[in-house]
């Protein structure tokens, strides 16, 4: 609402906290009160290494998957990733990163609960969508690629 970005907001909050603690510490000497008890905070190295290791594994798995798709062996995956990236870029034009992060956070916490509650309905709808996508893929192969869906994959494997 205030057009405040996340980084400046965090910096201003930290500056306010730091200035108030600094003034409190110096004023406590003048008014003969005890200074604030500021705890020492640190990040354990083991936790950082575990997070880094998991993040590295996920990044490498994603890059391997992108490499396999880019090699030209998986037309369906290539089309799905291209469509997904196109949709993501369109959504990215509508809102900033923090809004997308918030929406993703909310979706990741609500979609599994909704799926568990309405599992049968979601599965039947997903099956209908999958059938429709297969029909559209066949039409694409017949009209654009001038062959059967299996022929495109066989030609790719032979070359």
Summarize the structure.
The chain is built from six helices and no strands. By secondary structure, it is mostly helical.
CA(first)-CA(last) distance: 56 Å
Largest sheet: none
Total strand count, please? Answer: 0
Q: Radius of gyration, Cα only, in angstroms?
A: 27 Å
- What amount of the residues lies in strands? under 5%
- Mean pLDDT, to the nearest integer, reads 82
Helix-strand category? mainly alpha
Helical stretch tally: 6
Indicate the overall shape: elongated
Share of helix among residues?
over 70%
Q: What is the H/E order?
A: HHHHHH
Low-confidence stretches: 154-159
Commentary on this structure:
The chain has 159 residues and is an all-alpha fold. The chain has helices at 6-30, 45-70, 75-94, 97-117, 119-143, 149-158. The N and C termini lie far apart (56 Å).
């Amino acid at each position: 609402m205030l057009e405040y970005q996340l980084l400046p907001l965090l910096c201003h909050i930290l500056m306010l906290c730091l200035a108030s603690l600094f003034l409190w510490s110096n004023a406590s000497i003048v008014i003969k009160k005890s200074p604030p008890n500021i705890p020492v905070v640190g990040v354990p190295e083991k936790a950082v290494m575990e997070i880094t290791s998991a993040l590295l594994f996920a990044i490498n798995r994603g890059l391997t998957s992108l490499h396999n798709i880019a090699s030209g062996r998986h037309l369906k995956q290539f089309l799905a990733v291209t469509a997904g990236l196109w949709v993501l870029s369109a959504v990215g034009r509508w809102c900033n990163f923090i809004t997308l992060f918030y929406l993703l956070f909310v979706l990741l916490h609500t979609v599994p609960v909704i799926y568990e509650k309405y599992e049968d309905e979601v599965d039947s709808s997903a099956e209908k969508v999958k059938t429709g996508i297969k029909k559209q893929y066949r039409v694409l192969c017949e009209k654009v690629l001038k062959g059967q869906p299996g022929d495109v994959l066989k030609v790719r494997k032979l070359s």
